[in-house]
Sequence to fold (277 residues):
Amino acid sequence: MDSKTIFEEIKHTNEIGQEFWSARELFAVLEYIKWDKFLNVIDKAKQACKNSGLEQEDHFPHVEKLVEIGSGAKRDIGDIHLSRYACYLIIQNADPSKEVVALGQTYFAVQTRKQEVLEESFGKLQNEEDKRLFLRKEMVEHNKQLADAAKSAGVIQPWEYAVFQNHGYMGLYNGLGAKEIHTKKGLKKSQNILDHMGSTELAANLFRATQTEDKLRRENIKGKNKANRTHYEVGQKVRQTIKELGGTMPEDLPTEDSIKKIESSVKKSLISGKDKK
Fold:
């Protein structure tokens, strides 16, 4: 049993890009038979959330869930959209004798800590240059993971991957591919687009990459055309989120100096600091 697969398969993303899990689906995966018994576990998790000083509604919002009861009639049996942290707390309070619960403890503990570390690290950054360096490094790592997910979907050749990447850009940049973005940003063909993005634009592209990788794996998408379409649609979704939040569209964000200059400056400072010791 693969803990990552079973819990990733039931993960959802809402209209503003936030991940969540359905309590009804988690109930089934954790092999509970009675909903009332699982609600007791959720209540314990809610109390732990409250004891941590966090708002329960932010992590356990109640929603409608309609089911057919015959003759076209429907009944609301209710559901809860759980944050990753909520799932972590539920798993900690679930029946430890179940193998799937043990797997869940590993999955949610590791993934929650990873997210905490990432947010803590980014939150400590004081200036734009540091944020750019941090996000550019994350982009490198997640592009590797995206390439691996695309390969599993059938995007094999280098030129196929270039086409795949272009679809993601076109979704996010309102139809503009890499070539058009270069032109609009005033970049030379040899210059890497990502190296000239500010932190806001890098963050949007990082979200595009992580969500595409997640969707390719979660839905086990196969075939180059389907992979390309998925990347395009995720790019569009990220763009729509930016629009709804009143943000500046990525193609309209300013072109920054190459991040290579910042990296070079940091290295010189480190070397200079060592020389003084």
Summary: Residues 3-122 form one domain. The chain is about 65% helix and 10% strand.
